[in-house]
Structures are given as structure tokens and as C-alpha cells.
Amino acid sequence: MAELPIEQSGDKSLPKEPKTQADFFLRAAEKVRAKFPQSPGVYLFQDQSGRVLYVGKAKSLRSRAGSYFLKAAAEDQRTRKLVREIYDVDFMEAESEVDALLMESRLIKDIQPPFNKELRDDKSFPYLQITTHEDFPRIEVTREPRTSGVKLYGPFTSAGSLNGAIQVLQRVFQFRTCSLDIDAEDERWRWFRPCLLASIKQCTAPCNLRISKDEYRKDIGRLKKFLEGKRKPLLKEMKKEMLEAATAKRFEQAARLRDEIAMLESLHERGDLDKHVQPEVFYIDPQKGLVGLQKVLKLKAVPRTIEGMDIAHLGGDETVASLVQFIDGMPFKPGYRRYRIREVEGIDDYASMQEIVSRRFAKLRDDTELFPDLLLIDGGKGQLNSVLKAFASLSIEPPQIISLAKKEELIFVPGRETPLRLTRHSFALRLLQYIRDEAHRFAQHYHHLLRRKKTFDLE
């Protein structure tokens, strides 16, 4: 095949009547530039016979689809074969990036475009799985879907984007993602203490029987309708149900429906997946990492909530600390916190960490909020001991604490003489490294912001 005339910046020379594959390629490039909007949606590349070659989602259709008509796409090993077969391109707009993600998965399932498989780095696609055999169905992300007892949605092209969408949708529908086997008829669940998601109103806490089996299943039914692209009829149904609840003076139910409707209607404002989850790190399997941590640390249960802390300074100037929060092995951005060190002068990482731990956990205690299942400190045995002193001075029973030393990636555990040394390929170690590195990145970013502000104030 002849070399394609790749689109260059400012090149507007186009054939009036496309005759060759190169002409069709340029016509498709111009179509993207002239007709595609800067809004969310999916784009579809087609070959000469009209067969869909590839379906992709985009936050900005024009920018994302247009990237395939640049020189880099023709030279990239993963995309150059696709680029050489493009004869036409089309798009479908979506109301938000979350809607675009769901639309993309439905189209891939229906059309099965050949290049959606060829351009994958992974051996299998992620799916969203809703259990159907439980009193309170749960939502899971899996690459190995079950063949019975579940309702599947997908495949999706990115586990990272799917996890981001779940965190967005969980704010609306407040479903559970835990693995608890909850029996609606067992009153002992009323004494179970719900996790953090209940306190931040991202789960209705069926584990504490705060919601009935029927009401919870209604929420799951609404989630299914949304996942199937039935947003408008869903909103109509919810508004009717809200009015009926208000008329019957079930004001708490009416208020909850009102809030869910408002969040659904403004989903485009909260549908930015990048704000809810970090880009996918393919070599990390969160679930295997969590199970591995339970095993190596000899925990009673798989840790659901992990917090990581780090200190940042430059020559003792503008010392700051960061706290990052992970839920079910994924970053939970609303739980991130930044701190300026108030009581420590100069360079003293031990004292700085003591101050931050004291401030963080004294507040959690005073507000009667849940402690994390695991606290990860960046550093070695010295940092770990300083944190233990902070808890002792507060007379607070600490959660499980560990520290991770950078050079040899040794894990220090209270009460253990020698540190743990995991293999470099351990899922547990990779998850801890991810959390540690994210805490470091977040601390450094805050430190740079303060230094820049100080510089501007001096000028």
C-alpha cells in the first residue's frame, strides 16, 4: 500500500472527489476537524465496506479522534495498522464521560470491532458484575466474570475508567462493593459497624440493615436501567416515585430520591473519570494485592480502607505532609488530605510524622469516625516507632500500621524483630508501592504549591 499522507498542522489541501485510500483518509481527517464536537461521546472508524473497525470513547470527540490522523499514530506500532484501513469515521455524542464509557461498552459488545481486540495490552476485558443471588446485590469489577448468579455489563476497554465510573455512580445509587454475605433476616447484622462508604453517603449500609431488602433492590434496579442507557425514562420514573413518597408523607424517602435525581441530572458535571481514579496501572491487581496483604500481615479480614502518609520538605523549608486514601485497592480522591507542619522547626521527619498522625487520628476519634484498616508510613523502623509513640501519647488503640522503606522495599511491622521482604513481583508489594508513591506525589505537589506562593509573595 502507498504511504499515507498524514495530516500535518495547518494542512488543508483535500481532494474534491476521493478516489484512493489516501484520499478517503484525508477526507475522514477533515470530517473530524470540521464536524466533530469538543464534547464527550464515542467515535467509530470504518473500512471501505462500511464495517466498523474500532470504537473508542472520548472526553472530547474532536481531540481524541483527531489524534489518529497525526504522524505519531501512523508510526505507533499499536495503531498504524488501524490507521491504514480508515476510510470513514462517525461519532455519537454522550451527556457525560461516564455515559460515553457505557455507550462504548455496549457498542463493542454488539459490533465486536476487530481492532478493539488487537489494540488491547491485556489478555481479557474488564466487566462490571452485579450479583443476583444475594439479598443485597453487590457490584464488582472482574476480568473473569461468573457464568451464573450475576448480571454482566461490558466488556469495557479500561479497568481504570470503569473503576472511576463506579465511584461516580456510587454517589448516586449508593450500592455496596464489599464481599460480605449479608442475610436480610439475620438481626445480628444490626450490630455490624459499616465501613467508611456509609459515612460519606456512598453506600446505604445494608450491612447494618439501615435499608430494607426491597428498597436496596430498587436502587440496584435503577442502576441497571442507567447502565442500559435508559436515563430519561429512569428520571421520569424516579420523579413520579418521589412525588408519591412526598404525598404519602414518606419525606425521608422523597428527599433521598430528590438528591439522586439531582445528581443524575448533573452527571455531566461530575463525570470526569480522571478526578475519581488514577489512570490504570496495568501491573497492579488491587484485589490480589489486598488478599496478599491479609496473608502476609496475618490480618483477620481483607483490608478495605488503606491510608498512606508522607512528609515533604526542601532543606527544612515549608515542611508539609500528605494523606492519601485507598478503598478496595483504588485511590479515593475525596479522602485525600494535606497538612502544613505547625509545631516542628527544621528537618525532623520523625517529629513531623508524629504531629500529623496525632492530628489525623485525634480528629477521627473526636468525630467518632472509622479508622482505616491499614496505615502505611513511608520510611523505616524509625518512622514506624515515631508513629507508635503518637498513638501512645493519645491513648488511642492504633489500626494495623506498617512502614515501607524505599531502597530495599522492606516492610516493618510492629512487634516483629525483622522486616518482611516480599518478592518484587508480589501483588501485595506492588499495591503498597502504588500507595506510597501516590502519597509522595501528593505531598510533593503541595510542597511545590507553597514554595511557589511564597516566591510570589516575596516579589
Give me a quick take on this structure.
The chain has 459 residues and is an alpha+beta fold. It has 15 helices and 14 strands. The protein has helices at 21-35, 61-66, 71-75, 80-83, 97-111, 114-118, 159-173, 196-199, 213-227, 231-247, 251-265, 286-297, 349-366, 381-394, 427-458; strands at residues 41-46, 52-58, 88-93, 127-131, 139-142, 150-153, 305-314, 317-327, 330-331, 337-340, 374-378, 400-405, 410-412, 420-421.
- Output the number of helix runs: 15
Strand content: 15-25%
| Largest β sheet strand count, sense and barrel closure | 8 strands, mixed
Name the overall outline.
Answer: globular
Pairing-aware structural class of the strands and helices?
A: alpha+beta
Q: Give the topology string: H per helix, E per strand.
A: HEEHHHEHHEEEHHHHHHEEEEHEHEEEH
How far the N terminus sits from the C terminus, by CA atoms, comes to 60 Å
Q: Unreliable segments (pLDDT under 50, ≥5 consecutive)?
A: 6-15, 275-283, 454-459
Radius of gyration: 26 Å
Number of strands: 14
Percent helix, as a range, is 40-55%
Could you tell me the mean pLDDT?
A: 81
Give an overview of the whole structure.
Helix content is 42%, strand content 16%. The protein is built from 15 helices and 14 strands. The chain has helices at 21-35, 61-66, 71-75, 80-83, 97-111, 114-118, 159-173, 196-199, 213-227, 231-247, 251-265, 286-297, 349-366, 381-394, 427-458; strands at residues 41-46, 52-58, 88-93, 127-131, 139-142, 150-153, 305-314, 317-327, 330-331, 337-340, 374-378, 400-405, 410-412, 420-421. Strands 7, 8, 9, 10, 11, 12, 13 and 14 form an 8-stranded mixed β-sheet that branches. Strands 2-1-3 form a 3-stranded antiparallel β-sheet.
